[in-house]
Amino acid sequence: MTDAPRPFAHRLLPYEGADGLLAGAVPFLRAGLADGDRVLAVTSLATRVLLGDELDTGAVEFLDPAEWYAHPARTLAATLADADVAAQRGGRLRLLAEPAWTRRGAAEVREWQRTEAIVNAAFDRTGAAIMCPYPVRSTPAGVIADARRTHPETVRGDRAVANPGYVEPRVYNAACDRDPLPPPPASAETLQIARPDLYWIRAYIADWARQTARLPEEPLQRLLVAITEIMTNAQAHGAPPITLRMWTARDAFVCEVADRGRWPERSWYGFVPPPPGVPGQLGLWAVRLLCSRVDIRTGDGGTTVRLAVDTPGVRADAL
């Protein structure tokens, strides 16, 4: 006889002041330590000090929020791998993740909000437990409202209750995609492609990126791998003509592919990683790992895929 699999939990902790934070976070972490979970905490130094006054944090792995929240897809991939390993060993990953919303542009905030929703689909198989503290006094009201849509449960004291504002991740994801992309600048390099030749297209992008955008070699090579996948999809699922555009914006290099077809929805357009051990299905998920930012809009009017890679020392946003 085997133990029943643990249910996945993703909980919002809206709190006011240190007492409110500790009232929800401390029981959550204590339960994980008592059960022998792998316990991770992505918190500010101030929160770490508060937690250290209330429980033995020697078995808690503390992570730097600046590094952990650097890239949504890569963070999701790494944490999901940790959760899968814990589940395979008969245990559980327990994560206290304190979101960092300051100094983020609107587009980057939306991308992390979308990730909060995608977590519910990606981690469901793992039985992990995740709690996200949101300080209500310093977090914008709109961000708190969206958090109620992306977390199935809300914590009140030491209790978790069903969140009536919760929205299924697929529905939330579709709502994010209803916002149109900003138009490309008039100065964008534009090329109409009738019959795609991937070798020639990659050479053309590489030459323009090196000479005009001064894009370093490492991000350029990542972009070229990503653009191969996008062009392949445009040939397979799109409709001619295919339009390639390139430009620089906010110290990032942007490459856009547009066609007249409507792409089919597969694996959430790359937002949800494929299950482990399923080779050949990386596709758009791999594109999201390779690029700093990926935006996809598809509908009856056609499909646009916009890829951005950061230049050193900055982040792509509002592209």
Automatic annotation (TrEMBL):
- UniProt domain MEDS: residue ranges: 10-152
Q: Where is the Histidine kinase/HSP90-like ATPase domain?
A: 201-307
Concerning CDD domains, the annotation shows: HATPase_RsbW-like
Which GO molecular function annotations are given, in alphabetical order? protein serine/threonine kinase activity
Note whether Transferase occurs among the keywords.
yes
Q: Which keywords describe this protein according to UniProt?
A: Kinase, Serine/threonine-protein kinase, Transferase
In terms of PANTHER family, this protein maps to: ANTI-SIGMA-F FACTOR RSBW, ANTI-SIGMA-F FACTOR RSBW-RELATED
What's the protein here called?
Answer: Sensor histidine kinase
